[in-house]
């Protein structure tokens, strides 16, 4: 808990960022956000994402349809 308080105090007492530093920080945040979004959506990401889950569910539905049509 002490570490959190110390980090908050340091953040509050830190000097304001220059325009260049602020732009660099914003670009770094954007890069992180893009990485997180691609992990959620893209089948090529390490996490697989929503598209992979949708493709898997679609394959399941296709197999179920073939079984039902075969009856």
Q: Summarize this, please?
A:
By secondary structure, the protein is mostly helical. The chain is 80% helix and 0% strand.
Topology:
Blueprint: H1 2-13, H2 19-41, H3 49-70
Helix pairs in contact: 2-3
Strand content: under 5%
Could you state the oligomeric state of the chains shown? single chain
Q: Assign a percent range to the helix content.
A: over 70%
Total strand segments: 0
Write up this protein.
The mean pLDDT is 83. The chain has helices spanning 2-13, 19-41, 49-70. Helix 2 runs parallel beside helix 3 (49-70). The termini are far apart. Helix content is 80%, strand content 0%. With 71 residues, the protein is mostly helical.
Keywords:
single chain; mainly alpha; 3 helices
